[in-house]
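Propose amino acids for all 403 sites.
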């Protein structure tokens, strides 16, 4: 073929021909062009709606991750209390932990909550710590119940990482860590951590953490709520060598709700109202802590879920005058016959006794008239009590819901 010339005949192609669509080319807009304007508009609206939904339901990063640890569980019953109840520490801690989870999730949708257990199981203590560390949690709350040889020991306390030299801190640390030694191969898993050796806790006192101050702050908030809201004896915030607070890499607090070896506290902590009050106190402490360190994104701050309880939305006169009608050593059930039909009954705890009052009177004269009415109904010892504050929370009372 060398030396052979090939002639290609040139031909002009018009612009119209270059824009003509071949029969083998799919024109996606051709069918749209044939539709009516109404149909086109509907399609466009549908496409816009899909885009909006995809944006609206895009997961939003949580403002914080909270780990709630219900102490003990499964093969570890925790302390057995007085033995009068079938439920032991592991049951009470789980009940309160689940209530706290529900309270927070309802009111703070921007908080991601992870439970170390939500049933009667026993995750090893090391696994609870590992879980919190692996997910980079922002806060760790471990819930327990105390025990002592004397049935007179009473009160609630909070513990953070570290170790003071008091016998009390050593006692509770060794008590709560004791089950570690029953775990299989615990010496390997816990790298020489010896729960029955006081030297272990002395060594832990040297362990430093940038989270200690925040842990102490949350512990103080919890104790304030236990004392003011629930009327518990305040045993204070202490440093102790709990494994779960010393080895978590975030602010952490271990809470002792009360002594199951004290008959009165055992009854309180096994009652629905007692567990609700303790979980509510933890919620309030958490709310204050969260607002300072993990506020919700601006777009989500106006959610009504931040309100604590529906009845607390009602503004009360300050002072509010009520008529106290009875006192009890244990909280009354909501369906107690003595509370039925009473006007605006509330419950509050003073000096270890549950007291019940009725009415929300702005003037003492109105309360005196109500007192006479209550005396006629059989409450012969009724008398007027004054409460300061414009909300149930600030007044330190809890509405009796089913009355």
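Proposal:
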């Amino acid at each position: 073929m060398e030396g052979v010339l090939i002639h290609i005949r040139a031909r002009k192609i018009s612009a119209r021909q270059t824009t003509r669509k071949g029969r083998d080319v799919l024109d996606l807009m051709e069918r749209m062009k044939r539709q009516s304007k109404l149909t086109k508009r509907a399609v466009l609206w549908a496409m816009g709606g899909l885009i909006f939904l995809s944006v609206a339901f895009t997961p939003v990063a949580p403002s914080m991750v909270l780990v709630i640890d219900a102490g003990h569980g499964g093969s570890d019953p925790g302390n057995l209390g007085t033995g009068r109840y079938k439920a032991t520490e592991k049951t009470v801690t789980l009940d309160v932990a689940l209530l706290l989870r529900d309270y927070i999730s309802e009111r703070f949708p921007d908080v991601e909550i992870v439970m170390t257990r939500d049933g009667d199981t026993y995750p090893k203590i090391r696994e609870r710590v590992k879980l919190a560390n692996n997910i980079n949690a922002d806060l760790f709350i471990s819930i327990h119940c105390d025990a002592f040889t004397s049935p007179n020991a009473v009160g609630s306390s909070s513990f953070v990482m570290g170790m003071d030299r008091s016998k009390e801190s050593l006692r509770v640390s060794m008590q709560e860590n004791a089950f570690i030694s029953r775990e299989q191969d615990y010496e390997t898993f816990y790298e020489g951590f010896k729960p029955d050796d006081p030297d272990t806790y002395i060594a832990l006192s040297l362990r430093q953490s940038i989270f200690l101050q925040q842990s102490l702050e949350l512990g103080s908030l919890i104790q304030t709520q236990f004392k003011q809201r629930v009327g518990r004896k305040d045993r204070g915030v202490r440093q102790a060598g709990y494994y779960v607070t010393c080895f978590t890499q975030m602010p952490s607090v271990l809470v002792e709700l009360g002594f199951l070896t004290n008959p009165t506290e055992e009854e309180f902590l096994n009652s629905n109202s007692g567990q609700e009050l303790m979980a509510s106190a933890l919620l309030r402490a958490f709310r204050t802590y969260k607002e300072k360190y993990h506020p919700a994104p601006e777009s989500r701050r106006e959610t009504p879920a931040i309100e604590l309880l529906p009845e607390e939305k009602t503004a009360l006169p300050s002072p509010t005058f009520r008529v106290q009608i009875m006192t009890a050593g244990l909280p009354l059930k909501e369906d107690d016959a003595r509370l039925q039909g009473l006007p605006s009954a509330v419950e509050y705890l003073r000096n270890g006794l549950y007291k019940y009052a009725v009415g929300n009177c702005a003037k003492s004269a109105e309360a005196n008239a109500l007192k006479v009415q209550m005396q006629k109904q059989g409450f012969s010892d009724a008398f007027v009590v004054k409460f300061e504050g414009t909300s149930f929370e600030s007044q330190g009372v809890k509405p009796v819901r089913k009355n």
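Residues 1-8, 17-26, 299-313 have pLDDT under 50 and may be disordered. The two ends are 109 Å apart (CA to CA).
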